[in-house]
Amino acid sequence: MSQFFQMENFSKIVPYAQLFRQGMLVTVLLSVFTVLIGFCIALLLALMRMSDIRPFRALGLDKAGHPREGGALALISRFNPLSFLATAYVEVLRSTPVLVQVFIIYYGVFGLINLPTFQLFGFIKFNRFFPGVVALGMNSGAYLCEIIRAGIQSIDGGQTEAARSLGLSKAQNLRYIILPQALKNILPAIANEFVVIIKESAITYTIGVQDIMSAVNAVKGATFVIIEPLLVATAIYFCLCFPTSKIIAYFERRMSRGDKR
Questions:
Q1: For 205-261, what is each residue's pLDDT tens digit?
Q2: Residues 144/193, Cβ–Cβ less than 8 Å
Q3: Which of 61, 100, 127, 238 could share a disulfide with 115, CB 3.0–4.6 Å?
Q4: Confidence of residue 57 (pLDDT cuts 50, 70, 90)
């Protein structure tokens, strides 16, 4: 196997150009679906972390009805199971490698489920693509959760009070007033997460997803060259990420103009 860069080796890659085009499409689809799934998970987690559901709230009061200042009962009264579960999810997924999570989802979860074996667009294996999307989406949700929670909490509390005075319920306030403003604030961060996922999606080739790195592996096995296909993959990732990041920065500047006084 050639370990050194040689210009003539690029001619050996040309017959496999279709693999790289297909890999680029798979990478983009992985990123889009991952961000969508991650956003839905993150929104649910953020609402869980911000909830005020305390089933043992009554234990925080003494016999006279006054709040307990300390002790085990006061601690138990503050326990929020939804917030605890959401926090545990976020901390576990942010503290473990993505590769481990992908393997657990693919081998441990979907290994017990017989997924359909059809192919999307004629070349994307659904039974490998779907577990990869789920694993990356779950990981992305753990990071987007804090972004969404910060965006919601950044909205002035006076708007919630105004919504209550108009007779809006909490759900209506969240849907029509808080979330639209929060999304405007966090949209650049969500778009940046899309760029990050484009790069992180390369890990899914380890479970057989036909992304850009899968094309590199196929070329390496057929031609016994590795540096040149890696350079091609680098160029493709750069062409995907660099323009996207610049477009995000442009819209971020446009959106911030309205906030200036």
A1: 999 898 999 999 999 988 888 899 999 999 999 999 999 888 888 887 777 665 555
A2: yes
A3: 127
A4: confident
Q: With beta carbons less than 8 A apart as the criterion, state whether 194 and 137 touch.
A: no
Phi and psi of 156, rounded to 5°?
-60, 130
* C-alpha to C-alpha distance for 201 and 211, rounded to whole angstroms: 8
Using a 10 angstrom Cβ sphere, with 0-12 exposed, 13-18 middle and 19 or more buried, the burial of residue 27 is buried
Those residues with Cβ within 8 angstroms of residue 223's Cβ, 6 or more apart along the chain or in another chain: 9, 12, 13
Paired residues of 124 in beta bridges = 120
Q: Which CATH number fits domain 7-50+59-257: 2.40.50.100, 3.40.50.2300, 1.20.1530.10, 1.10.3720.10?
A: 1.10.3720.10
How would you classify residue 162: left for phi > 0, otherwise alpha for psi between -120 and 50, otherwise beta? alpha
Burial 147-167 (b: 16+ CB within 10 A, else e): bbbebbeebeeeebeebeeee
Q: Domain coordinates of the chain in residue numbers?
A: 7-50+59-257
> What is the reported pLDDT for 158?
81
Measured over the CA atoms of residue 159, residue 161, residue 167 and residue 172, the dihedral's sign is: positive
Tens-digit pLDDT profile for residues 90-101? 999 999 999 999
